[in-house]
Amino acid sequence: MSLPTFTAKSTAEDVAATFGEQIRGKTVLVTGTSINGIGFETARVLAKYAGLVIITGYNTDRLNLSAEAIKKETPSANIRQLVLDLSSLTAVRKAAAEVNAYPEPLHVIIHNAAASGSATLNPTVDGLEPRMATALTGPFLLTKLLAPKLLASSLSSSSKSDEFTPRVVVVSSAAHAFGPHGVDLGNIAHPDAAKYHNGDAYFQAKAAGILFASELARRAKGRIHAYSLHPGGILTNINQKGQDKLDLISMGLLTPEGLPDESKGAWKTMGEGAATTIVAAFDSRLDDESGAYLDDCVVANEKVAPHSSNAETASKLWEITEEIVGEKFTF
């Protein structure tokens, strides 16, 4: 089958329609699925094809709204809600135990969730910086605890044509490159309030996501495929409020009214923003590209900043995260 070339203007609907047969019957877990976010759009579109879409969030009311919206559009969608607070290691373990008890296999994890910013450091219950906890330590532990279920799904195919190597997708950002030094490895376990800056915390969290995906791909040795990506500039629920909105206005990316400033670069629709996520989750052309970084629906490793493509840094970050969560993540 000849596959289309996707572009910055491709939508999640376009990509999902192309890979409908690959998506059909699969179980996909998507974190951060509040309405008016990329994760919701990802889940909404995948629900038209997938066997089961697990939507997650720490707020039950928001989860209910998301589930209702998806079911209203696609009554046949199989949606399951999972309460998951990625900023709490205890909460991650509880949610992972729930998923491991599901009778269905698990084929894809999409780490889409992100924490809102703040003017000052507000440590999590585990004493971590919230953005890093939501982008790295929480996803790391969740993936570690669900890895056996992911691996088992690749062994449960009834025929050669049904075989699918499980995938882990990390939604990062081109903004990872804005932080000149990448992840401050010495500040992760015990963040220093004096060093805290909202923008830098965001840049570091996104850099950490890329390093996590690349190291997961290396250590999994083909048993799990992992990818990171830049979804594009999208006006989502997280950048329309609080410190994040103020920072984007100060950077000139949003107008004083909080609207996208098109003169500073093209902004994407929600559908265009979720397209690269679905490519990373299901495009068969990526089977030999595990560890890759995607932008505008294609592999764009050349766009990764040197500090986020350093193999030694990725390995050190993995080991530091193991120490924080108190568990070794091995295959």
TrEMBL record:
**Gene Ontology MF annotations:** oxidoreductase activity
Q: Which Pfam families match?
A: adh_short (PF00106)
Q: Which domain of life is it from?
A: Eukaryota
Checking InterPro entries in the record gives:
NAD(P)-bd_dom_sf, SDR_fam
Gene3D superfamilies per record = NAD(P)-binding Rossmann-like Domain (3.40.50.720)
Query: Which keywords describe this protein according to UniProt?
Result: Oxidoreductase
The text of the family note is:
Belongs to the short-chain dehydrogenases/reductases (SDR) family.
Which protein is depicted? Short-chain dehydrogenase/reductase family protein
